């Protein structure tokens, strides 16, 4: 039987506010455990929450960016459940009147096709704390620093039909929120987390199958792998005569295994009721329009501008513009040569960042340093091979391109007189190879140049300008014909 996959995403986006959604406690990452949770975050008796306006502005910005309906009245409910990292024993969230209503996000797939993914809604809520399971001798520790951090939870319709589409959608959301500046997008720190709802149904059916939810995926790769694993599990289970159970599952990216966590709750299990401490918040048209006027350049517009302004191909512009941080890095590095900058960012820099599991914000090679190296490559000071050595040295913290070139004596020999002398010397000391070249068929001669070029580069310790070497060598050998 042929099966169709049906996927919907719930995406938790941590907003880049300096303080929490209902208190003045800091949201800075990396503080000592339990040093950034105040009495309001813990719902201590006598405390009252005070809404953080910036969180609302950020949520409205997102809604405008996806052409969504913006609710003029926003209300909060309490979602009641007990978990060790939830200090209040309830989460302040939105159910009946989320701040962002229906919208859509357009994705582009590898084959160039496009698809519009519907957004059901996006709501504001507070984050929980974090359970820590390492170094506690079989016990768990609780860090409440994250409790009360503002989130928007983006809920898609079940419009995705493959892992490729799900990842493309997640990447597009990442691009949008980082472009807006409402999230730093650092998934390793939990700034974006994905819950993936997955079901399968016979191809051609219009009835949804029973879905499972795989929670808290914090990388695109983990999402792709988790979807593939769960789809295979559900199909095998059904074809063997079993039934899929609606449940919440966890995926371990290190072991590449998933397990059941708990049966899936329904909304009534959480006993939602309006938060008695928070009045409805009303936005008028002027307030929303004011925010609309502050919207920065969005990913699709940036891609089109990169193609026009820098002459990038659609493919290159799509990749470079997709991440706001990469786009900013590129625009600084592009001062020397846009195409070379794009090639180095998508090639060597990307490979090194991926190998070390780093984001471009943490790159040891700054955009200014890369621009400096590209300038020396473009003006002929160094060759492509030397550029690789310079890049490695910059990555290791040895300074900028000019200082590395000077310290290592990497300056390329471009003096025509010096190159002619080296070519003459190699030709004079290679009589047999010269004779072979002279008597060879014209079609075979280009392949025979490699010997001479190799000897010249050896004599110059790899510092002769390869283009000049080839031009001078070809001219002198042809004079001997």
TrEMBL record:
Q: Which UniProt keywords apply?
A: ATP-binding, Ligase, Nucleotide-binding, Protein biosynthesis
Superkingdom of this protein's organism: Bacteria
Q: Which InterPro entries does UniProt cross-reference here?
A: Asn/Gln-tRNA_amidoTrfase_suB/E, Asn/Gln-tRNA_Trfase_suB/E_cat, Asn/Gln_amidotransferase, Asn/Gln_tRNA_amidoTrase-B-like, GatB, GatB_C_1, GatB_Yqey_C_2, Gln-tRNA_amidoTrfase_suB_CS
Q: Which residues form the Asn/Gln amidotransferase domain?
A: 328-477
Which reaction is the catalytic activity of this chain? L-glutamyl-tRNA(Gln) + L-glutamine + ATP + H2O = L-glutaminyl-tRNA(Gln) + L-glutamate + ADP + phosphate + H(+); L-aspartyl-tRNA(Asn) + L-glutamine + ATP + H2O = L-asparaginyl-tRNA(Asn) + L-glutamate + ADP + phosphate + 2 H(+)
SUPFAM superfamilies attached to this UniProt entry: GatB/YqeY motif, Glutamine synthetase/guanido kinase
The molecular function terms of the Gene Ontology recorded here are: ATP binding; glutaminyl-tRNA synthase (glutamine-hydrolyzing) activity
Which Enzyme Commission number(s) are listed? 6.3.5.-
Q: Name one GO biological process term.
A: glutaminyl-tRNAGln biosynthesis via transamidation
**In its keyword annotation, does this UniProt entry include Flavoprotein?**
no
The family database entries (PANTHER family) matched by this protein are listed as: GLUTAMYL-TRNA GLN AMIDOTRANSFERASE SUBUNIT B MITOCHONDRIAL AND PROKARYOTIC PET112-RELATED, GLUTAMYL-TRNA(GLN) AMIDOTRANSFERASE SUBUNIT B, MITOCHONDRIAL
Family assignment from sequence similarity: Belongs to the GatB/GatE family. GatB subfamily.
Per UniProt, subunit arrangement is: Heterotrimer of A, B and C subunits.
This chain's function reads: Allows the formation of correctly charged Asn-tRNA(Asn) or Gln-tRNA(Gln) through the transamidation of misacylated Asp-tRNA(Asn) or Glu-tRNA(Gln) in organisms which lack either or both of asparaginyl-tRNA or glutaminyl-tRNA synthetases. The reaction takes place in the presence of glutamine and ATP through an activated phospho-Asp-tRNA(Asn) or phospho-Glu-tRNA(Gln).
Q: What is this protein called?
A: Aspartyl/glutamyl-tRNA(Asn/Gln) amidotransferase subunit B
């Amino acid at each position: 039987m042929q099966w169709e996959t049906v996927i919907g995403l719930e995406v938790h986006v941590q907003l880049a506010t300096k303080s929490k959604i209902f208190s003045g406690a800091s949201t800075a990452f990396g503080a000592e455990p339990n040093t950034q949770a105040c009495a309001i975050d813990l719902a201590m008796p006598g405390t009252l929450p005070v809404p953080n306006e910036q969180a609302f502005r950020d949520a409205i910005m997102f809604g405008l960016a996806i052409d969504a309906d913006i609710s003029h009245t926003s209300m909060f409910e309490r979602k009641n459940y007990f978990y060790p990292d939830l200090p209040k024993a309830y989460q302040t969230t939105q159910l009946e009147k989320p701040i962002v209503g229906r919208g859509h996000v357009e994705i582009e797939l590898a084959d160039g096709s496009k698809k519009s993914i519907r957004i059901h809604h996006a709501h504001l809520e507070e984050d929980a704390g974090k359970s820590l399971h390492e170094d506690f001798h079989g016990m768990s520790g609780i860090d409440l620093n994250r409790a009360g951090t503002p989130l928007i939870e983006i809920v898609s319709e079940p419009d995705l039909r493959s892992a490729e589409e799900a990842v493309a959608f997640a990447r597009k959301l990442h691009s949008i929120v980082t472009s807006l500046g409402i999230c730093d997008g650092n998934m390793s720190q939990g700034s974006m987390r994905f819950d993936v709802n997955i079901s399968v149904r016979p191809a051609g059916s219009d009835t949804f199958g029973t879905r499972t939810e795989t929670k808290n995926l914090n990388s695109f790769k983990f999402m792709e792998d988790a979807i593939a694993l769960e789809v295979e599990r559900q199909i095998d289970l059904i074809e063997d005569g079993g039934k899929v159970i609606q449940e919440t599952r966890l995926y371990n990216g290190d072991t590449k295994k998933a397990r059941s966590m708990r049966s899936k709750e329904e909304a009534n299990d959480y006993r939602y009721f309006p938060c008695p401490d928070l009045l409805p918040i009303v936005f008028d048209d002027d307030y929303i329009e004011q925010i609309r006027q502050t919207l920065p350049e969005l990913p699709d517009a940036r891609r089109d501008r990169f193609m026009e302004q820098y002459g990038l191909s659609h493919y290159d512009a799509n990749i470079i513009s997709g991440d706001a941080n990469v786009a900013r890095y590129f625009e600084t590095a592009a001062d020397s040569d846009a195409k070379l900058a794009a090639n180095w960012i998508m090639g060597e820099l990307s490979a090194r960042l991926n190998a070390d599991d780093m984001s471009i914000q943490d790159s040891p090679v700054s955009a200014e340093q890369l621009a400096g190296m590209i300038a020396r490559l473009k003006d002929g000071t160094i060759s492509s091979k030397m550029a690789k050595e310079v890049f490695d040295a910059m990555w290791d913290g040895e300074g900028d391109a000019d200082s590395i070139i000077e310290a290592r004596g990497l300056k390329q020999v471009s003096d025509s007189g010096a190159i002619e002398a080296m070519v003459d010397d190699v030709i004079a000391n290679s009589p047999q190879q010269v004779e072979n070249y002279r008597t060879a068929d014209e079609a075979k001669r280009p392949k025979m140049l490699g010997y001479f070029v190799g000897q010249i580069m050896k004599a110059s310790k790899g510092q002769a300008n390869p283009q000049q070497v080839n031009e001078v060598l070809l001219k002198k050998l042809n004079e001997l014909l």
